[in-house]
Structure formats: C-alpha cells, structure tokens
Amino acid sequence: MLNMQRSPPPVQLAIQAVVVDPKTLNDAARQQRQQRDRDRVQQQQREQQAQREREQQAQREKDQAAEQQRREQEETQRKQEVQRKEAEQRAEAERQVELKQRQEADQRRQAEEQQLRERQEAEKKRAAAEAERKKRAEEEAKRVAEIERKQREEAERRKAADDKRLQEARESDLQRQLQEEESDAAAAAAAANSPEMAQYQAMIRQAVQRRWNRPLSARDDLVCQVTVRQTPAGVVLSARVGSCNGDAAVKQSVENAVISASPLPTPPNPRLFQPEITFNFRPGA
C-alpha cells in the first residue's frame, strides 16, 4: 500500500501591501501545479491499488468458490464411491446370506431324509422285534398256562384236603367254643350281678361326675342312661345318652363329661371289662 499524502494546506497570507517579484510568483504557481500533479498521480495510484486489491479479492473469492466446488465434487464423488461400496457390500452380504440359507436348506433336507431313513429302518427293526416278542410271549403264555393248569389241579387237590382238615378243625373248635361260651355266659352273668361290677360302675360314675359341668337347667333328681364304647385301656371311643329327664343341654353336658373323663377306670377284675357298658348317671346319688 502506498502512503497517501495530502497536499499541504495553502498558506494563508496576511493581507498587506508587499511588493512581489514576478519570478517568485511563477515559482510558486509551478510548485502548486507540481503538487497537484503529484496528488493526482498518487490518487490514480491509490485507485489502481484499490482496483488491483478488488480484482485480487474477486479472484480469491473465485478461487475459493472453485476450490469449494472442487471439494464438494470430490465429497460427492467420495460419498458416491462409499455408497457404491456399501451397495456392493450389501449385495455381497445378501448373496452370502442367500447362499448360506440355500446351504442350510440343503443340509436340513439331507438331515430330514436321513432321519426318515433311520425312522423307517428303526420301524422295521421294531416291527421285527415286536413280532419276535409276540411269538416268544405266546410260547411263554402257553408254557405258563400249562404250569398254571397243573398248579391249579395241585392247588385244588390240596384245597380239598385242607378244606376237609379245616372242616374237621372247625367242628372241633365250634364244639369247644360252645362249651366255653356256656361257661363264660355263666361266669359273665355271675360277674354282672356281682358286687365287683357294682363297684366298677360306681367308679365310672364318679369319674364322669368329677368332669361334669352342671348346666343351669339340670334337675336335682337328674337320671340319665349312658352307653359308653371303650378300649380295654379305658379310652372312650363314644358316649351316648339314652333316656334322660334333662333337656338337650344336660344330655350334651353328660356326654362331654364322659369324653373328658377318658381314660375311664379299669375294673378290679379283668373279666368284668365290657367294650360297651351302660350305667345310670345320677349326680345327686
């Protein structure tokens, strides 16, 4: 850039009457013309310099636009190349997938055919084995049937002999049992009316009375007939109130007392035990 110089301001002269040499005036005018020429040249140089700068800027912008266009074209080409390669890769991948699918389909078909052949062969073997098994089973069934027939005949023979011996034993046992029952009946009748039986029933009544919770509706002259099923150890299996001059609450209280008194006292004489015993419950007695 050229240094821009301004023309010096004109010299202001004081107005005064002075005698001027014409030569001096000519020199001053010449200097002014030279200065204007220099200023005009400098102005032209500045304008030329500005024009050159504008042209250079325009050229740079043009070059930048061209460079940008070139880059865009290269980028476009690069993207197109990438897209082309990607398309080729996708096509190759699809081809490989299709090829793999065809191979897998062929393998499946071959495997299915092999499995079918194996199933058919296995079915033939099973059929042959089943026929052989049925044949052996029939032969075994015939042999077993013959053995069972002989065993049945032998069993029937033995059973006839056993039945005969058993019948003789039963008749003997029945005769002995009748004799024992007659003896036991007489003993039981004697025991039922014995003081020991009365004592045994009294023990049961006392055990039940200790467990009895008297309802408000119970009468003073309450009498309830109670039937108890028990084990030889006195464990109560069931209790049932028969005839009773009390209401339902009283009957239930007596049954609860019998169950709560379990196990009941055992008789002093084992021959007095009865699996089902009946006694009269009189709480006031």
Give a written overview of the molecule.
- The protein is mainly α.
- The protein has a domain of 82 residues: Fusion Protein Consisting Of Minor Coat Protein, Glycine Rich Linker, Tola, And A His Tag, Chain: A, Domain 2 (2-Layer Sandwich).
- Helix content is 71%, strand content 8%.
- Strands 2-1-3 form a 3-stranded antiparallel sheet, with helices on one face.
- A hairpin with a 5-residue loop joins strand 1 and strand 2.
- The longest helix has 171 residues.
- The N and C termini lie far apart (151 Å).
- The model has no long low-confidence stretch (mean pLDDT 86).
Please summarize what this structure is.
The chain has 285 residues and is mainly α. Helices cover 71% and strands 8% of the residues.
The rounded Rg comes to 71 Å
**Count of alpha/pi helices:** 3
Could you say which structural class the secondary elements and strand pairing correspond to? mainly alpha
Q: How much strand? A: 5-15%
- Biggest sheet statistics: 3 strands, antiparallel
- The stretches of 5 or more residues where confidence is low (pLDDT under 50) are none
Helix content: over 70%
- The CATH topology name of the domain at 200-281 reads Fusion Protein Consisting Of Minor Coat Protein, Glycine Rich Linker, Tola, And A His Tag, Chain: A, Domain 2
CATH architecture of the domain at 200-281: 2-Layer Sandwich
> Gap between N and C termini, in Å?
151 Å
Record field, number of beta strands = 3
Strand order of the largest sheet: 2-1-3
Overall average pLDDT: 86
How would you sum up the global shape?
A: elongated
Order of helices and strands: HHEEHE
User: CATH class of the domain at 200-281, please?
Assistant: Alpha Beta
